[in-house]
Amino acid sequence: MIAYLDESGAHGGPDDVFTVGGWVTWEHRWIRIEQVWNGLLGPRVFHMTDFENRKREFAAWPKDDRRRVKLVAALADCILGNEAFGTAHSIQLEPLNNHVPGRRSHTSR
User: Fold this and answer.
1) Which CATH class is domain 2-108?
2) Cross-strand pairs, 18
3) Which of left, alpha, beta for 23 (phi over 0: left; psi -120 to 50: alpha)?
4) Closest to 6 in 3D by CA, of 73, 87, 72
5) How far apart are the first and last CA of the chain?
6) Burial 58-70 (b: 16+ CB within 10 A, else e)
7) Model confidence, pTM
8) Most buried among 9, 45, 70, 101, using CB within 10 Å?
């Protein structure tokens, strides 16, 4: 099994929540997924934040463009059709900092 994960959050505030999420499936399934995604996107890393905010290669895509909906649907169908398991986990950092010895709290920076 192989997992592709990404993190979000933890920017230094007292209410920070750190999240890790991604997908897990077998190697042969990832090969299929990569073939489909490369066919749709070209060989690149797809950043949903760039897509949603129309940055970088998606800067010219208008908000109401049906092409955007078709692309997201095709990417999602590929993931689901290859039996990838989605997972995400979050933790509020301040309680962790208060209970784990050696962790710096946000107020001590």
Assistant:
1) alpha beta
2) 9, 91
3) beta
4) 87
5) 39
6) beeeeeeeeebee
7) 0.72
8) 9
Q: Which amino acid, one-letter code, is at 60?
A: A
Provide DSSP, 20-60.
Answer: EEEEEE-HHHHHHHHHHHHHHH-SS---HHHHHTT-GGGTT
Q: In sequence order, what are the residues at sequence separation of 6 or more whose Cβ sits closer than 8 angstroms to the Cβ of residue 28? A: none
Residue pLDDT, tens place only, 24-75: 999 999 999 999 999 999 888 888 889 988 999 889 887 778 888 999 999 9
Asked if 67 and 51 count as a contact pair (C-beta separation under 8 A), the reply is: no
Tokens representing residue 103 in the block: 């962790």
Residue 87 carries which DSSP code?
Answer: E
